[in-house]
Request: fold
Amino acid sequence: MDFREINEFFRDFGKYIIAVVVAILLFLYVISFMQVSGPSMEPTFKAGDLVFISKLHYRFGEPKRGDILVFENNGLKNLIKRVVGLPGDKIEFKDNTLYLNDQPYKEDYLGEGIVTYDFKSDVIPDNCYLVLGDNRPNSQDSRELGCIEKDKIIGKVVFRFWPVNKMKMF
Reply:
């Protein structure tokens, strides 16, 4: 091996190290992916779907009503749910209708025949969000867990990449 070959080896090796470090930093701070488990988000997601999560989305902005996000569940498995209530909102379900601040609100994303049993929240505190699964009868969500604090939110679901025939931006 001459000096040129050694120099080329270290230059190539350095490129691989930089690529690995960049990939690690991306997955730690910018993006992640998750496999959906269970039926709680049907029909939007089915068990086994793979989604990309933007970890930067809520560092520079706030969750919006209708966003699908992933949050920490008391050190257990992370959960994926839809934002229904924002800070300052009062949420009530009555006769299978969502009332947002005492006004009816249409949830276009719910599947046919999904029933949400009567439920009422206090005014949602600052930095907290009321989240529900789209498949309400089969979802552990804010009705049991309470409101989700912003610092527990991992990120926003931005893209389903598996199955391939159902790829979609959110």
Observations:
- The mean pLDDT is 89.
